[in-house]
Design goal:
By secondary structure, the protein is an all-alpha fold. The chain has 15 helices and no strands. The chain is elongated and about 85 Å long.
Protein backbone atom coordinates (compact mmCIF):
# COMPACT_ATOMS: atom_id res chain seq x y z
CA UNK A 1 0.00 0.00 0.00
CA UNK A 2 1.45 3.34 -1.13
CA UNK A 3 -0.85 6.21 -0.13
CA UNK A 4 -0.89 9.26 -2.36
CA UNK A 5 0.64 12.48 -0.97
CA UNK A 6 -2.82 14.07 -0.73
CA UNK A 7 -4.36 11.22 1.26
CA UNK A 8 -1.25 10.97 3.40
CA UNK A 9 -1.30 14.69 4.21
CA UNK A 10 -5.02 14.83 5.01
CA UNK A 11 -4.90 11.64 7.06
CA UNK A 12 -1.81 12.65 9.04
CA UNK A 13 -3.20 16.13 9.74
CA UNK A 14 -6.45 14.68 11.11
CA UNK A 15 -4.48 12.04 13.00
CA UNK A 16 -2.21 14.62 14.62
CA UNK A 17 -5.05 16.79 15.92
CA UNK A 18 -7.09 13.77 17.09
CA UNK A 19 -4.04 12.30 18.87
CA UNK A 20 -3.42 15.64 20.58
CA UNK A 21 -7.03 15.66 21.86
CA UNK A 22 -6.72 12.03 22.99
CA UNK A 23 -3.38 12.41 24.77
CA UNK A 24 -3.77 15.76 26.53
CA UNK A 25 -7.25 17.13 27.34
CA UNK A 26 -9.12 13.81 27.24
CA UNK A 27 -6.68 12.02 29.54
CA UNK A 28 -6.68 15.00 31.91
CA UNK A 29 -10.50 14.94 32.00
CA UNK A 30 -10.58 11.19 32.69
CA UNK A 31 -8.03 11.60 35.47
CA UNK A 32 -10.09 14.37 37.09
CA UNK A 33 -13.30 12.32 36.84
CA UNK A 34 -11.60 9.39 38.57
CA UNK A 35 -10.77 11.65 41.50
CA UNK A 36 -14.09 13.40 42.07
CA UNK A 37 -17.79 13.02 41.45
CA UNK A 38 -19.12 14.30 38.13
CA UNK A 39 -21.83 16.94 38.52
CA UNK A 40 -22.63 16.85 34.79
CA UNK A 41 -19.82 19.13 33.63
CA UNK A 42 -17.53 16.18 32.99
CA UNK A 43 -20.01 14.55 30.66
CA UNK A 44 -20.43 17.77 28.69
CA UNK A 45 -16.65 18.20 28.44
CA UNK A 46 -16.38 14.58 27.31
CA UNK A 47 -18.87 15.19 24.51
CA UNK A 48 -17.01 18.30 23.39
CA UNK A 49 -13.76 16.31 23.21
CA UNK A 50 -14.96 12.97 21.87
CA UNK A 51 -17.08 14.25 18.99
CA UNK A 52 -14.32 16.24 17.21
CA UNK A 53 -11.74 13.57 18.01
CA UNK A 54 -13.80 10.79 16.46
CA UNK A 55 -14.79 12.98 13.50
CA UNK A 56 -11.11 13.53 12.75
CA UNK A 57 -10.35 9.83 13.19
CA UNK A 58 -13.22 9.03 10.83
CA UNK A 59 -11.71 11.21 8.11
CA UNK A 60 -8.29 9.64 8.72
CA UNK A 61 -9.77 6.11 8.59
CA UNK A 62 -11.49 6.92 5.30
CA UNK A 63 -8.14 8.03 3.96
CA UNK A 64 -6.73 4.63 4.92
CA UNK A 65 -9.61 2.91 3.11
CA UNK A 66 -9.15 5.13 0.04
CA UNK A 67 -5.43 4.31 0.00
CA UNK A 68 -6.15 0.58 -0.06
CA UNK A 69 -5.62 -0.19 3.61
CA UNK A 70 -8.52 -2.65 3.66
CA UNK A 71 -8.12 -4.14 0.19
CA UNK A 72 -7.39 -7.49 1.80
CA UNK A 73 -11.11 -7.73 2.71
CA UNK A 74 -11.94 -7.86 -1.02
CA UNK A 75 -14.92 -5.54 -0.72
CA UNK A 76 -15.99 -2.72 -3.01
CA UNK A 77 -14.94 0.82 -2.15
CA UNK A 78 -18.49 1.98 -1.33
CA UNK A 79 -19.00 -1.01 0.96
CA UNK A 80 -15.69 -0.35 2.69
CA UNK A 81 -16.51 3.32 3.24
CA UNK A 82 -19.91 2.40 4.67
CA UNK A 83 -18.40 -0.15 7.06
CA UNK A 84 -15.72 2.30 8.18
CA UNK A 85 -18.33 4.97 8.93
CA UNK A 86 -20.53 2.52 10.83
CA UNK A 87 -17.58 1.10 12.77
CA UNK A 88 -16.32 4.55 13.82
CA UNK A 89 -19.86 5.55 14.80
CA UNK A 90 -20.15 2.39 16.94
CA UNK A 91 -16.77 3.13 18.55
CA UNK A 92 -17.90 6.67 19.30
CA UNK A 93 -21.03 5.42 21.03
CA UNK A 94 -19.07 2.87 23.07
CA UNK A 95 -16.63 5.58 24.15
CA UNK A 96 -19.47 7.41 25.87
CA UNK A 97 -20.00 4.39 28.16
CA UNK A 98 -17.27 5.85 30.38
CA UNK A 99 -19.71 8.62 31.32
CA UNK A 100 -22.65 6.21 31.64
CA UNK A 101 -21.10 4.09 34.42
CA UNK A 102 -18.77 6.47 36.30
CA UNK A 103 -19.68 5.26 39.81
CA UNK A 104 -21.38 1.95 39.17
CA UNK A 105 -21.14 -0.28 42.28
CA UNK A 106 -20.03 -3.26 40.19
CA UNK A 107 -16.30 -3.15 39.40
CA UNK A 108 -16.66 -5.29 36.27
CA UNK A 109 -19.26 -2.89 34.87
CA UNK A 110 -17.04 0.12 35.59
CA UNK A 111 -14.04 -1.61 34.01
CA UNK A 112 -15.84 -2.77 30.87
CA UNK A 113 -17.64 0.57 30.54
CA UNK A 114 -14.38 2.52 30.81
CA UNK A 115 -12.27 0.35 28.52
CA UNK A 116 -13.56 1.54 25.10
CA UNK A 117 -12.59 5.20 25.61
CA UNK A 118 -8.95 4.12 26.03
CA UNK A 119 -8.72 1.13 23.70
CA UNK A 120 -10.75 2.14 20.64
CA UNK A 121 -9.11 5.52 19.90
CA UNK A 122 -5.67 3.96 20.46
CA UNK A 123 -6.43 1.17 17.99
CA UNK A 124 -7.66 3.69 15.41
CA UNK A 125 -4.61 5.93 15.89
CA UNK A 126 -2.33 2.91 15.43
CA UNK A 127 -4.16 1.91 12.24
CA UNK A 128 -3.88 5.34 10.61
CA UNK A 129 -0.32 5.96 11.75
CA UNK A 130 1.11 2.71 10.41
CA UNK A 131 -1.09 2.53 7.30
CA UNK A 132 -0.38 6.03 6.02
CA UNK A 133 3.28 5.96 7.10
CA UNK A 134 4.54 2.49 6.11
CA UNK A 135 8.15 3.56 6.54
CA UNK A 136 7.80 3.78 10.33
CA UNK A 137 7.82 0.00 10.82
CA UNK A 138 8.82 -1.53 7.51
CA UNK A 139 9.23 -4.99 9.02
CA UNK A 140 5.50 -5.45 9.75
CA UNK A 141 3.54 -7.12 6.93
CA UNK A 142 0.97 -4.64 5.60
CA UNK A 143 -2.09 -6.94 6.06
CA UNK A 144 -1.34 -7.27 9.79
CA UNK A 145 -1.37 -3.53 10.44
CA UNK A 146 -5.16 -3.31 10.37
CA UNK A 147 -5.93 -6.50 12.33
CA UNK A 148 -6.24 -4.88 15.82
CA UNK A 149 -8.55 -2.18 14.45
CA UNK A 150 -10.65 -4.69 12.50
CA UNK A 151 -11.15 -6.75 15.68
CA UNK A 152 -12.20 -3.64 17.62
CA UNK A 153 -14.49 -2.58 14.77
CA UNK A 154 -16.19 -5.97 14.61
CA UNK A 155 -16.73 -6.07 18.38
CA UNK A 156 -18.06 -2.50 18.39
CA UNK A 157 -20.53 -3.19 15.59
CA UNK A 158 -21.67 -6.41 17.28
CA UNK A 159 -22.15 -4.75 20.68
CA UNK A 160 -24.00 -1.72 19.33
CA UNK A 161 -26.13 -3.85 17.03
CA UNK A 162 -26.98 -6.24 19.85
CA UNK A 163 -27.87 -3.42 22.23
CA UNK A 164 -30.04 -1.73 19.60
CA UNK A 165 -31.82 -5.01 18.93
CA UNK A 166 -32.37 -5.55 22.66
CA UNK A 167 -33.84 -2.08 23.12
CA UNK A 168 -36.15 -2.49 20.12
CA UNK A 169 -37.29 -5.90 21.36
CA UNK A 170 -37.89 -4.57 24.88
CA UNK A 171 -39.84 -1.59 23.57
CA UNK A 172 -41.89 -3.83 21.28
CA UNK A 173 -42.64 -6.24 24.11
CA UNK A 174 -43.75 -3.40 26.38
CA UNK A 175 -46.10 -2.06 23.70
CA UNK A 176 -47.56 -5.49 23.00
CA UNK A 177 -48.06 -6.24 26.70
CA UNK A 178 -49.69 -2.83 27.20
CA UNK A 179 -52.00 -3.44 24.27
CA UNK A 180 -52.92 -6.90 25.54
CA UNK A 181 -53.57 -5.49 29.00
CA UNK A 182 -55.80 -2.72 27.62
CA UNK A 183 -57.70 -5.14 25.41
CA UNK A 184 -58.12 -7.48 28.35
CA UNK A 185 -59.57 -4.74 30.52
CA UNK A 186 -61.89 -3.54 27.77
CA UNK A 187 -62.99 -7.02 26.82
CA UNK A 188 -63.77 -8.32 30.32
CA UNK A 189 -66.14 -6.55 32.69
CA UNK A 190 -65.50 -6.14 36.40
CA UNK A 191 -68.40 -8.48 37.11
CA UNK A 192 -66.83 -11.22 34.99
CA UNK A 193 -63.46 -10.74 36.70
CA UNK A 194 -65.13 -10.93 40.11
CA UNK A 195 -66.96 -14.10 39.12
CA UNK A 196 -63.72 -15.74 37.99
CA UNK A 197 -61.72 -15.10 41.15
CA UNK A 198 -63.17 -18.03 43.17
CA UNK A 199 -62.00 -20.32 40.36
CA UNK A 200 -58.37 -19.31 40.87
CA UNK A 201 -56.23 -21.55 43.03
CA UNK A 202 -54.41 -19.66 45.84
CA UNK A 203 -51.30 -21.80 45.35
CA UNK A 204 -51.12 -22.21 41.57
CA UNK A 205 -52.54 -18.78 40.70
CA UNK A 206 -50.97 -16.75 43.50
CA UNK A 207 -49.29 -14.30 41.10
CA UNK A 208 -52.51 -13.85 39.10
CA UNK A 209 -54.47 -13.09 42.25
CA UNK A 210 -51.85 -10.55 43.28
CA UNK A 211 -52.40 -8.71 39.99
CA UNK A 212 -56.07 -8.32 40.87
CA UNK A 213 -55.23 -6.38 44.03
CA UNK A 214 -53.84 -3.35 42.16
CA UNK A 215 -55.44 0.09 42.30
CA UNK A 216 -56.87 -0.17 38.78
CA UNK A 217 -59.31 -2.91 39.79
CA UNK A 218 -62.58 -2.22 41.58
CA UNK A 219 -62.64 -2.44 45.34
CA UNK A 220 -64.85 -5.53 45.17
CA UNK A 221 -62.36 -7.31 42.88
CA UNK A 222 -59.43 -6.35 45.11
CA UNK A 223 -61.19 -7.56 48.23
CA UNK A 224 -62.18 -10.88 46.63
CA UNK A 225 -58.64 -11.45 45.33
CA UNK A 226 -57.12 -10.69 48.72
CA UNK A 227 -59.57 -13.01 50.47
CA UNK A 228 -58.63 -15.76 48.03
CA UNK A 229 -54.92 -15.09 48.62
CA UNK A 230 -55.38 -15.42 52.37
CA UNK A 231 -56.80 -18.89 51.79
CA UNK A 232 -53.24 -19.99 51.02
CA UNK A 233 -51.83 -21.79 54.09
CA UNK A 234 -48.48 -20.00 53.65
CA UNK A 235 -49.94 -16.66 52.59
CA UNK A 236 -47.52 -14.51 54.57
CA UNK A 237 -44.42 -16.40 53.45
CA UNK A 238 -45.54 -16.34 49.80
CA UNK A 239 -46.22 -12.61 50.00
CA UNK A 240 -42.78 -12.00 51.51
CA UNK A 241 -41.25 -14.08 48.72
CA UNK A 242 -43.11 -12.03 46.08
CA UNK A 243 -41.83 -8.83 47.69
CA UNK A 244 -38.31 -10.18 47.19
CA UNK A 245 -38.68 -10.73 43.43
CA UNK A 246 -37.33 -8.43 40.74
CA UNK A 247 -40.83 -7.08 40.03
CA UNK A 248 -42.60 -6.68 43.38
CA UNK A 249 -45.15 -4.09 42.20
CA UNK A 250 -48.21 -6.36 42.54
CA UNK A 251 -47.08 -7.59 45.95
CA UNK A 252 -46.71 -3.99 47.12
CA UNK A 253 -50.24 -3.27 45.90
CA UNK A 254 -51.54 -6.22 47.93
CA UNK A 255 -49.67 -5.02 51.02
CA UNK A 256 -51.11 -1.54 50.63
CA UNK A 257 -54.69 -2.80 50.27
CA UNK A 258 -54.63 -5.51 52.94
CA UNK A 259 -55.64 -5.03 56.56
CA UNK A 260 -52.66 -6.37 58.50
CA UNK A 261 -52.27 -7.57 62.05
CA UNK A 262 -49.44 -6.13 64.19
CA UNK A 263 -47.46 -9.36 63.72
CA UNK A 264 -47.94 -9.23 59.93
CA UNK A 265 -46.79 -5.62 59.91
CA UNK A 266 -43.66 -6.56 61.83
CA UNK A 267 -42.80 -9.31 59.36
CA UNK A 268 -43.76 -7.47 56.18
CA UNK A 269 -42.20 -4.06 56.90
CA UNK A 270 -38.54 -4.93 56.07
CA UNK A 271 -39.26 -6.74 52.76
CA UNK A 272 -41.73 -4.01 51.77
CA UNK A 273 -39.08 -1.33 52.25
CA UNK A 274 -36.55 -3.42 50.32
CA UNK A 275 -39.08 -3.85 47.51
CA UNK A 276 -39.56 -0.07 47.26
CA UNK A 277 -35.78 0.39 47.07
CA UNK A 278 -35.54 -2.29 44.37
CA UNK A 279 -38.27 -0.66 42.29
CA UNK A 280 -36.47 2.69 42.65
CA UNK A 281 -33.15 1.18 41.54
CA UNK A 282 -34.79 -0.39 38.49
CA UNK A 283 -36.38 2.94 37.53
CA UNK A 284 -33.02 4.68 37.91
CA UNK A 285 -31.35 2.18 35.56
CA UNK A 286 -33.99 2.58 32.86
CA UNK A 287 -34.92 6.23 33.47
CA UNK A 288 -33.23 7.69 30.40
CA UNK A 289 -35.18 5.35 28.12
CA UNK A 290 -38.64 6.27 29.48
CA UNK A 291 -40.71 8.77 27.52
CA UNK A 292 -41.89 11.81 29.45
CA UNK A 293 -45.46 10.56 29.94
CA UNK A 294 -44.16 7.25 31.29
CA UNK A 295 -41.98 9.08 33.82
CA UNK A 296 -44.93 11.15 35.02
CA UNK A 297 -47.20 8.12 35.42
CA UNK A 298 -44.48 6.24 37.34
CA UNK A 299 -43.96 9.23 39.60
CA UNK A 300 -47.69 9.53 40.36
CA UNK A 301 -48.01 5.78 40.93
CA UNK A 302 -45.00 5.46 43.24
CA UNK A 303 -45.64 8.66 45.19
CA UNK A 304 -49.17 7.59 46.12
CA UNK A 305 -48.46 3.88 46.67
CA UNK A 306 -45.22 4.20 48.63
CA UNK A 307 -46.56 6.96 50.88
CA UNK A 308 -49.60 4.82 51.67
CA UNK A 309 -47.42 1.80 52.49
CA UNK A 310 -45.13 3.92 54.69
CA UNK A 311 -48.17 5.20 56.60
CA UNK A 312 -49.45 1.64 57.05
CA UNK A 313 -46.18 0.53 58.66
CA UNK A 314 -45.80 3.58 60.86
CA UNK A 315 -44.77 2.44 64.32
CA UNK A 316 -43.36 -0.87 63.06
CA UNK A 317 -39.78 0.19 63.82
CA UNK A 318 -38.79 0.23 60.13
CA UNK A 319 -37.90 3.63 58.70
CA UNK A 320 -39.39 4.08 55.21
CA UNK A 321 -38.32 7.72 54.86
CA UNK A 322 -34.94 7.05 53.11
CA UNK A 323 -36.68 4.75 50.60
CA UNK A 324 -39.37 7.36 49.90
CA UNK A 325 -36.78 10.12 49.55
CA UNK A 326 -34.73 7.94 47.19
CA UNK A 327 -37.76 7.45 44.95
CA UNK A 328 -38.66 11.14 45.01
CA UNK A 329 -35.11 12.31 44.26
CA UNK A 330 -34.94 9.95 41.28
CA UNK A 331 -37.45 12.12 39.47
CA UNK A 332 -36.48 15.55 40.81
CA UNK A 333 -32.76 15.12 40.05
CA UNK A 334 -32.88 13.12 36.84
CA UNK A 335 -35.55 15.23 35.21
CA UNK A 336 -33.07 18.13 35.47
CA UNK A 337 -30.29 15.98 33.98
CA UNK A 338 -32.32 15.13 30.87
CA UNK A 339 -33.68 18.59 30.14
Amino acid sequence: MNPSPVLQSIGNLCLGVATLIYVVPLQYLLLELSRKRDDGGGTLAGILLLLPMWLLLLVASLCVAAAGGFDGLRLGRSTLYTLVVLAVLAMTLLSFMRFEFPRHPNFATRFVGGLPIYLLPAATIQLVLLSLNPGLLPGIPRPWVGVPWLVCAALSLALCGGFLGYRLAAAGKARVMGLVSRLGHHGVTGREILAGIPQLDPDRDFAELLKRTNEFESRAVRAAALERLRAHPEFLNRLIAELGTRSPEHALAAVEFATLTPEEKRLLAPPARSAIERVTNEIQREFRYFPKDRRKSLQRWGTRLFASIAAKFQGSGVDFLPAIEGFTSTFSHREKDYH
